[in-house]
Amino acid sequence: MDLLEKLAILSDAAKYDAACTSSGARRGYEPGKIGNTSSSIAGCCHSFSADGRCITLLKVLMTNCCAFDCQYCINRRSNDVRRTAFTPKELAELTIGFYRRNYIEGLFLSSGVLRNPDYTTELMIRSLRILREEYRFNGYIHAKAIPGTSPELTYQLGLLADRMSVNIELPSEAGLQKLAPDKTKSAILRPMGLIRDKVQENKAELVKYKHTPRFAPAGQSTQLIVGATRDSDRHILNLTQSLYDKYRLKRVFYSAYVPVVESSLLPALDTKPPLLREHRLYQADWLLRFYGFRAEELLTKQQPDFNTALDPKCNWAISHLEQFPVEIMRADYEMLLRVPGIGPVGAKRILSARRTDTLTYENLKRLGVVLKRAQYFITCGGKMREGLRFTPETMLAQLEAMERGLLPPHEAQQLSLFDAVG
Question: pTM of the prediction?
Answer without folding.
Answer: 0.87
